[in-house]
Design goal:
alpha+beta; seven-stranded antiparallel β-sheet; 44% helix; Alpha-D-Glucose-1,6-Bisphosphate, Chain A, domain 4; 7 strands; 2 domains
Amino acid sequence: MLETLTTKVNESLKGSFLEPKDAENVNTTERLISIAAGTYILYKGVKQIFSHPFIGLQEAAVGGILLYRGATGFCPIYNKIGKDSTDLQAIRISERFIVDRPRDEVYSFWRNFENLPRFMKHLHAVTELDETKSEWSANIPNDLLKIKWKAEITREEQNSYIGWQSLEGSMIDNAGKVEFSDAINGLGTELNVEINYFPPAGNIGRGVANLLNGLFEKMVREDITNFKHYVEGQEYQTYLSSQKQEV
């Protein structure tokens, strides 16, 4: 729909001074917001032209600029300062914290990737396929889309380090690592967690990048730090009890 609108607008502007001279530099999310805001402000301005001409014309002009920005995907101001919001941006998250549990226990819990959705709400499920490979699925905010990918462990050191990377051909590139060390005071375990999401190249990747917005990044960051609350709480004790019963 947006592509059709862009084509029609560009054709109608062809040859005029309004014709975009450069490539699109506004991402899909910003364009939709610009169209919605521009429509509202333009409507509001037109209604005031006769009662308050100066204010009405100003609002109509602002609304028109926003509509132009949304319909063409081109922002002259972005172009002037060299900004391009269509660039695919990776999400890189790094958190360091201490949990009040023994290092070997914390490592064993993380090593079983199927445990991650227990405290990471952005993950729908993780299924281990063999000793090193697993299948992951993540929930985009508001359940707009479920992204799936396969990953494999790239490096592993007992009770010290786990690193993983998504397999080639995945819908999204995901990589992460967790470093485990004894806390300085000797009480508990210090974790250094890094998780990265890289949208794939191409039009599909651009669409995924628009979905992996700040809200998704905030969700992932909160999920990582939520591990401390989980592993030090009652829910984790219930998990340990269930594991003992299975043995």
